[in-house]
Design goal:
The protein is of the alpha/beta class. The chain folds into two domains: 7-136 and 310-340, Quinone Oxidoreductase, Chain A, domain 1 (Alpha-Beta Complex); 140-281, NAD(P)-binding Rossmann-like Domain (Rossmann fold), CATH 3.40.50.720. Helices cover 35% and strands 24% of the residues. The protein has 13 helices and 15 strands. Helix 5 packs across helix 6 (166-177). The longest helix has 16 residues, at 289-304. The two termini are 21 Å apart. 41% of the residues are buried. The mean pLDDT is 95.
Amino acid sequence: MTKLPTTYTAIEIACEQANVVKAMLSLQQVTKKLREPEPDELLIRMEATPINPSDIAFLQGSYRVKKTMPAVPGFEGCGIIIGVGKSLDHDKWIGKRVSCFTQNDKDGCWANYFYAKPQEVMLIDESLKAEQAATFFINPFTAWGLCEIALQRESKAIVINAAGSMVAAFLFELATMHQIEVIGIVRKQETAKHLKASGWKNILVENCPDFSSQLKILLEDLAANTAFDAIAGSSAGFLLNALPPDSEVVVYGGLSNKSIADINPLGLIFDNKMITGFNLSDWMAETDSITFEVARNTLTEIILSGKVKNKVQTSYPHTEIKNAMKSYLGNMSAGKVLLTF
């Protein structure tokens, strides 16, 4: 095994802070002792890790994933395996480049080194640049899992709000591959124009006066029976009420930071409508290795072909975590901000 240094640096938060500015200011660079991996662990020298909305929610204490404090944040990233536990295959893992994803109660990816179990990493194509490798798990695989739901429901058309997001971009590409029509809902005309220019046919702007009537027409014409909601609040209730009988709204995000509201109970009682949730960690735990490999290869091809790529607006050395946070919080819609090591 590669000779290890004795210490490494990590970004740490002492406790959750509901105020996002206080959470940002409380982040500190700390020195931690580097140990050899446990028998079932891999040691990864990190290359890059993004700041995600889920990371912000975690720092504020509003995310379901909890860690023993103080804790190192960071749910995904990429790096090189430099250490292998005694019970693992050295030749299979050592020197391999991987993407990482974890939501366990342990130090996360915002550090020079990250200890991972094999199920928390994925071998990746060497052609993927750091900005794509570091963001390869959450957005692309969430889109894959959502598309699986649409296929299981034999949906001819689906609806997705926050359609300017990267999850929506990957989902649109995957749905198109399966000849599923996509109805996208956005807040801004500028976003709608951009999506139409990139191939979306059915885009609605929710603050337009005729939004509800246009949505009703599209739902009927395209026979949409599945919607994917990233916002929660009243948006999820609106989608469920608008959909025809035997439809399902799948909630995979909570951008509004509000509880789901305004659901017409008669739709649930008499029209067999459903509202469910999607959690990437659960999907990964339930997915067999063959399906996962197909997903990895397909998503890699989509990214390398240039059809869809995770947007990264800029990167900072991890030592500049506060500047990185300011940049991301100031314009989250512009794309991810990466921490580099």
